[in-house]
Amino acid sequence: MLAYDYPLLNVFWTMLMLFIWIAWLFLLFQVIFDIFRSHDIGGWAKAAWFLLVIAVPLLGVLVYVLARGDSMRERDLQRAKDQQDQMDAYVRQAAGTSGGVADEISKLSDLQSSGVITAEQFEAQKAKLLS
Asked: Which structural domain, as residue segments, surrounds residue 65?
């Protein structure tokens, strides 16, 4: 096929259809994965949803997104939050500090206000932390 046999608008149309097809596949797999990740429905309900999505993909995905779209979004947000919390905990553990210099200065300030250490001791410890 030569370039003059396939006009430019047909190229754009083909690219649009390809993009829509790939987006459809992403949505289809997102729905299938969500069916099996969902803990609030039982095994028979998961099987029924899966069969509906496989037997009649367009209608099944549309019905699933309309019926369970909000809970699907909430599960995705919760999973992302859990992953972020795990990453934060790992970074804190790898860095070896729980709160850093600001946390230590806050503890020293509490000790000074309660009278355990003097103002001179506070300033000396603060200078040591900041250096």
From this structure: 3-96
